Amino acid sequence: MPRKTHHVVPNSDRGGWDVKRGGASKASKHFDTKKDAEKYGREVSRNQRTEFLIHGKDGKIQRSDSHGNDPHPPKG
Predict the structure, then answer these.
(1) Which carries the bigger pLDDT value, residue 73 or residue 47?
(2) Distance (Å, whole) CA 45 – CA 5
(3) Exposed (0-12), middle (13-18) or buried (19+): which is 19, by Cβ within 10 Å?
(4) Which residues contact 15 (CB under 8 A, 6 or more apart)?
(5) pTM: predicted TM-score of the whole model, two decimal places
(6) Running DSSP on this structure, what letter comes out for residue 75?
(7) How many DSSP H helices and E strands does the chain contain?
(8) Running DSSP on this structure, what letter comes out for residue 69?
């Protein structure tokens, strides 16, 4: 079963940052700053219980937070 995700990604066409659902071609919302995109994206991810992935300007994943069914939860 594929995991459900939300991503903060750079927008190369408009500048700024987008919040996207995993697999979506269009952004859920666009932001001028990465900080604002992360704040909005984290809230959406918590509400929808998805994995939240934050990308850098190069497109590589910098950080991730699990707000749902973590396939590898910590023990204890």
Answers:
(1) 47
(2) 8
(3) buried
(4) 32
(5) 0.84
(6) P
(7) 1, 5
(8) -
User: pLDDT band at 43, cuts 50/70/90?
Assistant: very high
- C-alpha torsion sign, points 60, 28, 34, 3: negative
**Cα–Cα distance measured from residue 76 to residue 73, given in angstroms and rounded to the nearest whole number:** 9
Question: How far apart (Å, rounded) are the C-alpha atoms in residues 27 and 21?
Answer: 7
- Report pLDDT for 73: 57
H or E stretch covering 9: strand 5-10
Q: What is the predicted pLDDT for the residue at 17?
A: 98
Helices (H), 23-70: 34-48
- Bridge-based pairing of strands 51-55 and 5-10 is parallel
Q: Residue 9 has which token pair?
A: 């990604």
